[in-house]
Design brief:
Oligomer: single chain
Strand content: under 5%
Strand order of the largest sheet: 1-6
Radius of gyration: 22 Å
Largest sheet: 2 strands, antiparallel
Distance between the termini: 22 Å
Mean pLDDT: 92
């Protein structure tokens, strides 16, 4: 979850012609079917992560830790493809912070390096270290944390005292517990937490290994249950599907809002351009695991999925049907071809970034000031995402929808403000 702003005025598109009502239902059905499949895949892979975490805690070793890390990486691919359902679908936006909030002050959760610092005026709990403390004061009240449970994480710690960076739940809290801090700066390497941080007795490193394991188990259990809840919202009769279908013209606008907002303000701006401007490896979305290149790639893939009405599931099966692409092409074949080409160009750019990282040139290295190759790879993705957003605006216009507001970012709309 990031702070985003309205796109520049050019994204506020007031329109005239009506959407072709006869196609709406079929397109929305496909969109909802893909959401159902993506969240079901997210549940399945999170359950695999939960099993790997339990095995790690029962028998800590470098092998069991690596298995848990691999399971976390696998779980990210289907989830990232769901992010295009944010922004337009209120039920997803209201929930998303529980599972994917970022960035986080990891000192809230566990031990951190001395270079991390401590409490600040912005976040007095930035170094609370729940793993090391079975009781602590929070917002003037004493909290009994002797048992680390999903209820403690969700109900007491997450966004404690109203501070968004107090992220106690979700993928990134789990990521930190598996990898630990990435202390390599712009150098090669991710976090390097030892498996002995989950060991028992004299073999324990980092202290409080039993509580660290309890936190990891509770956070993973909560992730599974949160994803199960969201998956249930998209099945037949689910609230998210019902809300989408309640007003079919608004439903088509919902698809485009998610596509445009994720393309522009969220991914091109807050997740990519901003980090490059700041040359800050802490601006990686998956900063502990060095998995940011995959998160960017699968976010882009998710946008392409919903436009073309096709999603390849984890098991290789395909969910597909009537699409926004069909609708646009029927109205304006040239624009349909343009939109398809722009999405493909973006995926080539994101694929190049992913390939470079997969082959050893990691995202935090790309962010280093003066690294021309890294800047070119990141800006290739940014430029593709911004360019496809301009085509999404034209799609909005040709379909004759009401005014749509895409999310924006100072990094794109007002770069000087980033440094103020």
């Amino acid at each position: 979850m990031t702070k985003v702003r309205l796109l520049a005025a050019s994204a506020l598109v007031a329109l005239a012609a009506p959407v072709f009502a006869g196609q709406n239902t079929a397109v929305l059905d496909t969109y909802a079917d893909i959401a159902e499949a993506k969240f079901a895949d997210s549940v399945m892979t999170a359950q695999g992560l939960h099993s790997a975490v339990k095995a790690l805690i029962a028998n800590p070793s470098e092998a069991s830790l690596m298995t848990a890390k691999d399971a976390w990486l696998v779980s990210r691919a289907p989830y990232q493809q769901t992010e295009v359902y944010r922004f337009g679908n209120a039920i997803v936006d209201d929930w998303e912070g529980k599972v994917n909030a970022w960035p986080l002050d990891e000192g809230l959760i566990d031990y951190v390096d001395a270079s991390y610092g401590g409490a600040s005026d912005e976040n007095p709990f930035a170094a609370l270290n729940v793993v090391a403390n079975a009781s602590f004061s929070l917002s003037g009240k004493t909290v009994d944390a002797a048992m680390i449970t999903p209820a403690l994480l969700e109900g007491t710690l997450h966004e404690a005292d109203g501070v968004e960076s107090n992220v106690a739940t979700g993928y990134h809290a789990i990521e930190f517990l598996l990898w630990g801090q990435d202390l390599n700066g712009h150098g090669d390497g991710a976090g390097n937490r030892p498996a002995s941080d989950f060991a028992t007795g004299a073999a324990c490193t980092g202290g409080n290994c039993d509580r660290r394991g309890a936190y990891l188990r509770a956070a993973t259990e909560l992730l599974v249950s949160d994803l199960e809840w969201m998956a249930s919202q998209w099945v037949a009769g689910g609230d998210a599907r019902a809300a989408l279908m309640a007003d079919e013209t608004a439903g088509i606008a919902t698809i485009l809002t998610g596509m445009g907002s994720l393309s522009y303000g969220e991914q091109a701006g807050e997740r990519m351009r901003l980090g490059l401007m700041l040359n800050d490896p802490e601006e990686e979305h998956d900063c502990f695991s060095d998995n940011t290149h995959n998160s960017h790639f699968y976010d882009g893939q998710g946008i392409q999925n919903v436009y073309h009405g096709s999603y390849t599931r984890v098991d290789g099966s395909v969910v597909s049907g009537a699409s926004l692409s069909d609708m646009v092409t029927a109205v304006n074949a040239d624009l349909g071809a343009e939109m398809t080409a722009k999405l493909a160009t973006t995926m080539v750019a994101l694929g190049a970034l992913k390939s470079a990282a997969d082959n050893g040139f990691k995202y935090d290295q790309m962010l280093e000031r003066g690294n021309a190759k890294g800047k070119a790879l990141i800006m290739g993705g940014v430029d593709g995402l911004v360019d496809q957003t301009r085509s999404i605006e034209r799609v909005v216009a040709v379909l004759g929808l009401d005014t749509i507001e895409f999310e924006g970012s100072d990094s794109l709309d007002d770069p000087d403000a980033v440094f103020q």
